[in-house]
């Protein structure tokens, strides 16, 4: 079987969850090809897969990592042109590779190109409803009604396009542990096509040594270990990790800390501070070792990262990006599930972060809740499920 993967190239999360599925299919003798753009091109190349680069869709951010809606809208015509070029590039790459099935991760251009080439496609998507970003709570009923109306309209417009795929795979848990609760709201147009399979996890906890053994092998003592695994766009990661590094420099000595800046395109380097109690890396090759070794995770609220924390049974502190509707919604879900705490970026300081960490570590409340979520997660293996769905759609089972 020949499988064509097309993950969104904005940040690394989409490519990151396609790669383990591609590996699973390749292990069965299937041929795999990738199409993407931006930072994801090098990321896929490092994973030893052939990749075709297509024209990027651009978004802008402010210095604090906040999505810059005005600047992004200002280049709307250019993005529409880039989208058209992207469809053309996909048509060419699909024709060249001649796949049996196309797997698109959040990319409409690939769904359209597959339809035009009469190739069956599977869509992987957890943002079924696109939320309009806003900094402050909306209190006026008229504005709230307008926001909800526009979001519903967007859901139905995109729904009419997403439904061109054969199946829509949602890499999230069903209730009560749905991570992106505000986004996993489907259109009635494709309800029968949806499959909730759980988040994609490349490596499961059982594949690694026990936590204490991992801590020792990584050179840590018995103090609680905080793992700050930062995701997002490159500009966002540069900004927030600089701030976190300053905070962690002055953190109480009762903790060991690892800060991964998530910069896969920079050389792997290590900075040790406070006698090695704080370690800062551009990138860690096997973050799952650190995830299992740690006692608490600090995250931006990326969908993949929160899913991994649940599988590994790690309570978390979420620092969502300002006005990032997905991160904000996931942070709220984490608090509602009582498996972690949220700190808004504008309130982030040494005091607020330590208070959140200290509350989680001193109470067994969060550990009980995350353990319950972890037991629920053990019922799902998204890599196997999506690989099987891909073969079924291609008619190879």
In short:
This protein is α/β, with parallel strands linked by helices and 397 residues long. It is built from 14 helices and 14 strands. The protein has 2 domains: 212 residues, Rossmann fold (3-Layer(aba) Sandwich), CATH 3.40.50.2000; 173 residues, Rossmann fold (3-Layer(aba) Sandwich), CATH 3.40.50.
C-alpha end-to-end distance: 11 Å
Question: What does the overall shape look like?
Answer: globular
Sketch the major β-sheet: 7 strands, parallel
Write down the overall mean pLDDT: 89
Strand arrangement, largest sheet? 3-2-1-4-5-6-7
> Structural class of the secondary structure composition?
alpha/beta
Q: Tell me the CATH topology of the largest domain.
A: Rossmann fold
Under the CATH scheme, which class of the largest domain? Alpha Beta
Number of helical segments with 4 or more residues: 14
Provide the gyration radius in Å.
21 Å
Number of strands: 14
- Number of structurally distinct domains: 2
CATH architectural designation of the largest domain? 3-Layer(aba) Sandwich
Which range best describes the helical content: under 10%, 10-25%, 25-40%, 40-55%, 55-70% or over 70%? Answer: 40-55%
3D structure, described in words:
The structure is a single chain. With 397 residues, this protein is an alpha/beta fold. The chain folds into two domains: 2-199 and 380-393, Glycogen Phosphorylase B (Rossmann fold, 3-Layer(aba) Sandwich), CATH 3.40.50.2000; 205-377, Glycogen Phosphorylase B (Rossmann fold, 3-Layer(aba) Sandwich), CATH 3.40.50. Helix content is 43%, strand content 15%. A seven-stranded parallel beta sheet has the order 3-2-1-4-5-6-7, sandwiched between helices. A seven-stranded mixed beta sheet has the order 10-11-9-8-12-13-14, sandwiched between helices. The longest helix has 22 residues, at 76-97. The model has no long low-confidence stretch (mean pLDDT 89).
């Amino acid at each position: 079987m020949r499988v064509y993967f097309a993950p969104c190239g904005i940040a690394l999360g989409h490519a990151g969850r396609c790669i383990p599925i591609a590996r699973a299919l390749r292990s069965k003798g299937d041929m795999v090809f990738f199409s993407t753009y931006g930072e994801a091109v090098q990321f896929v190349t490092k994973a030893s897969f052939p990749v075709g680069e297509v024209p990027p869709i651009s978004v802008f951010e402010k210095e604090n990592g906040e999505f810059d809606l005005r600047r992004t809208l200002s280049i709307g015509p250019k993005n529409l042109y880039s989208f058209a070029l992207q469809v053309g590039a996909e048509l060419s790459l699909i024709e060249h590779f001649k796949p049996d099935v196309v797997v698109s991760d959040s990319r409409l251009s690939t769904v359209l190109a597959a339809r035009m080439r009469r190739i069956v496609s599977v869509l992987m998507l957890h943002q079924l409803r696109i939320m309009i970003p806003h900094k402050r709570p909306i209190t006026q009923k008229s504005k709230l009604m307008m926001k909800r109306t526009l979001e519903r309209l967007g859901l139905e417009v995109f729904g009419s396009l997403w439904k061109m795929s054969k199946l829509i795979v949602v890499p999230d848990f069903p209730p009560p542990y749905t991570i992106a609760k505000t986004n996993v709201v489907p259109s009635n147009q494709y309800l029968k096509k949806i499959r909730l399979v759980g988040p994609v996890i490349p490596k499961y906890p059982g594949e690694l040594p026990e936590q204490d053994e991992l801590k020792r092998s990584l050179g840590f003592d018995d103090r609680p270990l905080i793992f700050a695994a930062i995701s997002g766009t490159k500009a966002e990661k540069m900004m927030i990790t600089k701030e976190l590094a300053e905070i962690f420099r002055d953190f109480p000595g009762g903790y060991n800390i690892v800060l991964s800046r998530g910069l896969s395109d920079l050389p792997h380097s290590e900075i040790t501070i406070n006698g090695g109690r704080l370690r800062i890396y551009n990138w860690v090759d096997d973050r799952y070792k650190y995830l299992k070794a740690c006692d608490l995770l600090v995250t931006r609220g990326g969908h993949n990262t929160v899913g991994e924390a649940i599988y590994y049974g790690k309570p978390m502190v979420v620092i969502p990006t300002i006005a990032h509707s997905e991160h904000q919604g996931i942070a709220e879900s984490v608090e509602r599930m009582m498996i972690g705490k949220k700190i808004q970026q504008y309130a982030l300081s040494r005091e607020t972060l330590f208070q959140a960490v200290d509350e989680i570590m001193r109470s067994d409340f969060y550990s009980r809740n995350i353990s319950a979520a972890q037991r629920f997660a053990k019922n799902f293996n998204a890599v196997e499920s999506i690989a099987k769905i891909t073969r079924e759609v291609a008619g190879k089972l």
